[in-house]
């Protein structure tokens, strides 16, 4: 059976690396702890025999916390260049990409993205938590001109890629307010 690939884009979990807005609100060490917990939870929640999971790290180091996953470097460039490389490199049988910021991502939501073939999962902050593309579309994708990490990320991506099935909207955890809101919903 030909399985699609789920790429998880992540930063190597290290104190002071990433989650800078969250760190401003709760401290660097606590932000690191939250990020490690979110990443571990996501990596556990998305494993499924229907697809292959690949972890693409930001290149700082290969972390021993993920020894049972296929780990690849993201490479250089902005997020668009790194996503383009990942999608093209794994687009043979369909591919989806997620980050580690949306704690409500799970197998059922990933499966919905793969079923739709060309789909995007909006995030409440104007970004997206999932981008799924068919093999053909992934092999030719080029994510240039997207205003990453902004309220325009989703709209720029849809404008660039055209018709995508919109999945349900999920929340990201980017700062202390987001973290507090997430804990209040649990």
What does this molecule look like?
With 186 residues, the chain is an alpha/beta fold. It has one domain: Spore Coat Polysaccharide Biosynthesis Protein SpsA, Chain A, CATH 3.90.550. Helices cover 38% and strands 17% of the residues. It has helices at 20-26, 28-45, 79-89, 107-116, 135-140, 153-161, 176-185, and strands at residues 5-10, 52-57, 70-73, 95-98, 119-122, 128-133, 165-166. Strands 3-2-1-4-6-5-7 form a 7-stranded mixed sheet, with helices on both faces. The mean pLDDT is 92.
Attribute tags:
single chain, 186 residues, alpha/beta, Spore Coat Polysaccharide Biosynthesis Protein SpsA, Chain A, seven-stranded mixed beta sheet, 7 helices, 38% helix, globular
Distance between the termini: 37 Å
In CATH, what is the homologous superfamily? Spore Coat Polysaccharide Biosynthesis Protein SpsA, Chain A
Helix and strand composition category: alpha/beta
Strand percentage lies at: 15-25%
- Strand line-up across the major sheet: 3-2-1-4-6-5-7
Rg, Cα atoms, Å: 15 Å
> What is the residue-averaged pLDDT?
92
How would you concisely characterize the structure shown here?
This protein is of the alpha/beta class and 186 residues long. 38% of the residues lie in helices and 17% in strands.
Ordered list of secondary-structure elements with their pairings:
Elements: E1 5-10, H1 20-26, H2 28-45, E2 52-57, E3 70-73, H3 79-89, E4 95-98, H4 107-116, E5 119-122, E6 128-133, H5 135-140, H6 153-161, E7 165-166, H7 176-185
Parallel strand pairs: 1-2, 1-4, 2-3, 5-7
Antiparallel strand pairs: 4-6, 5-6
Helix pairs in contact: 1-2
């Amino acid at each position: 059976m030909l399985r699609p690939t789920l790429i998880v884009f992540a930063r190597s979990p290290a104190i002071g690396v990433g989650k800078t807005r969250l760190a401003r609100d709760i401290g660097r060490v606590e932000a690191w702890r939250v990020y490690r917990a979110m990443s571990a939870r996501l990596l556990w929640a998305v494993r499924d025999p229907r697809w292959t999971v690949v972890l693409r790290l930001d290149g700082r180091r290969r972390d021993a916390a993920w020894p049972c996953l296929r780990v690849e470097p993201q490479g250089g460039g902005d997020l668009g260049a790194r996503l383009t490389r990942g999608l093209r490199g794994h687009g043979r049988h369909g591919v989806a990409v997620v980050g580690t910021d949306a704690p409500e991502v799970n197998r059922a939501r990933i499966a919905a993205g793969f079923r739709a073939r060309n789909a995007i999962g909006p995030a409440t902050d104007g970004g997206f938590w999932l981008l799924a593309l068919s093999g053909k579309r992934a092999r030719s994708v080029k994510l240039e001109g997207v205003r990453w990490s902004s309220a325009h990320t989703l709209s720029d991506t849809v404008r660039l890629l055209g018709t995508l099935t919109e999945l349900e909207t999920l929340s990201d955890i980017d700062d202390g307010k987001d973290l507090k809101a997430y804990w209040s919903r649990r």
